[in-house]
Amino acid sequence: MGVPSGRLSVDLSELRAMARLDLAGMAYEFGALNNKTAGTADSDAETFMSYPVSSGEGAGFSASYDAWSNLRDRLVRCMGKSAENAHAAQQAVEKICSMYESTDDDAAKHLEKSWSNKDVNGDPAPPPGIAHYTNGDKTLTQDRYPPAMPKIYK
Amino acid sequence: MWHSAEDLHDLGEQVIKAAVHAIASHMNDQLDAIGEVKDSQEPTPDTTARGAGDKMPSVAEITAWANTEFGDIPRLLGAFGNGGPELSEPSRNAMWSVVGVLDPTFKAQIHDQDGHLSSVMPAGAKRWRPDTGGDPNITIADREGAMIRRLNYWRGIAADNFNDNFVTKIPSKAEMQKSVAVALAVGVEAEQRIRQNANNDVWNIGQATIKFLDAMAGNCPASAQPVVGGLTIFGAVASVFAATGGMGAVLAGLGLASTVGSAITSDAPHRRSVSIHGEAAHATISGGSALSAISSMRGAIHRVVSQIPEQEQDLARVLNDISLNVRDDEMTVPAPTDVTGPASHTVHALSREGADNNLQFSPS
What total number of domains does chain B contain? Predict the structure, then answer.
């Protein structure tokens, strides 16, 4: 006894959306947060220079700097690890999806057809309707694939 | 308002001019005072000119002397004009943007110097958001909600593990990341408040000194001149953390409210008067001569300078306390080991909901 191919392809499409849209989007978002937070290090010298400072004087850091930067660096690492774990989950769900797909040729065909969608520019795009997010009474749409996870700062 | 290095430098020069004016207006009294202070030092217009029948020093001579004696004042004041708020803007905006991405509904307000609440993001300020390829308003919570909905299409051991050990854990991790990001953003605000208050205090000290010296020059009784508003550098950090609104909830969630209280109302005698709401310490410019007035001014500035590291250490204590009370796993999305395990072993474990709900989906 098996599962009807049509239904299976719908189910697998949702699984694939979880991987390629939800988890990929989440991995990218945590990665971007990691980058943004890590980027504050570029202005540490200006933000936390010892004060008051005479012009031309080589300024040290304020007494609060070590505590602030240590906490910032921890948050950077945790955001980075969150991105990597979301990415790992994405890969795991993709793998599960592939395993199901390999068991049913018809379901695989249906799945590939719905996931070969192109946007108006001819670029690959998620299947219409698969990525709707509700936020209150608004429906938000993921109309492009999330970018690849950025380089993570440790 | 931030007073620039140039403005403070100019203020220092005005202090010197006011001192010269006060000395020239009360030559005898002032020169007596100068003589007492400068007795053992190099000849100055005062001591060399003193004597029966000798002419008094000219204003030019007094000015030349004052420029030597007080020449460091413009630079001393000007140093407080470097390090303005524009330098911390990148970090400040970055951290508030991070907070906004983790929780778009978060509204933080901070007490300004007058005790009024103001938004931490100026009206119209554009926040950074990562471009994930969809509507910019899609949140991490939205994605978590979508995954829970999609899990309706996937049932079984792996799905349950995925739901219980991964998906449902995400919101609390993001929430903790937001709380720490808030603490960091507030930390930047507090560091800037320390500087802003010191900048204002030094400006007011300079103004009070000029006012005192002008009164002295104008034959008015030069009564002690209070520094307007007192020295607000005292309690600068406390004034930022005494926040309400959304941030208050975040701080309470971190156990930060009590942490801030204990950090800032420590038993150190010089800080006993500083409460969570911050209290101004008073300073006055006084003295019987221009020299003693300038000395009084230097003393007041020294109090400001000594408070800067004290306030920064208060801030460091708060941040260190947060760091000690938050574990990495509380702000890290977990590894999906419970999903990858079954996936890499057998599809039999990946049962799906089927017609009889016991259906094991397996290769044909």
Answer: 1
Q: Which domain holds residue B342?
A: 88-121+139-364
Lowest mean pLDDT among A83-97, B295-309, B344-358: B344-358
In a domain, residue B83? The reply is no
Contact B233, B190 (CB under 8 A): no
Rounded to whole angstroms, the Cα distance separating A66 from A48 reads 10
Contact A143 B133 (CB under 8 A): yes
Distance from CA of B331 to the nearest CA of A (A): 6
pLDDT 10s digits, B179-237: 899 889 989 989 999 999 999 999 999 999 999 999 988 867 678 888 887 888 888 88
Are A92 and B320 inside 8 Å of each other by CB?
no
Note whether residue B303 is domain-resident: yes
In a domain, residue B188? The reply is yes
Higher pLDDT, A117 or B125: A117
Is the confidence at residue A2, as pLDDT, over 70?
A: no
Whether B46 is covered by a domain: the verdict is no
Whether residues B339 and A93 touch (CB distance < 8 A) is answered with yes
| Statement: residue A6 has pLDDT above 80 | no
3-state SS track over chain A: CCCCHHHHHHHHHHHHHHHHHHHHHHHHHHHHHHHHHHHHHHHHHHHCECCCCCCCCCCCECCCHHHHHHHHHHHHHHHHHHHHHHHHHHHHHHHHHHHHHCCCHHHHHHHHHHCCCECCCCCECCCCCCCEEEECCEEEECCCCCCCCCCCCC
ipTM associated with this complex:
0.93
- The predicted structure's pLDDT at residue B36: 61
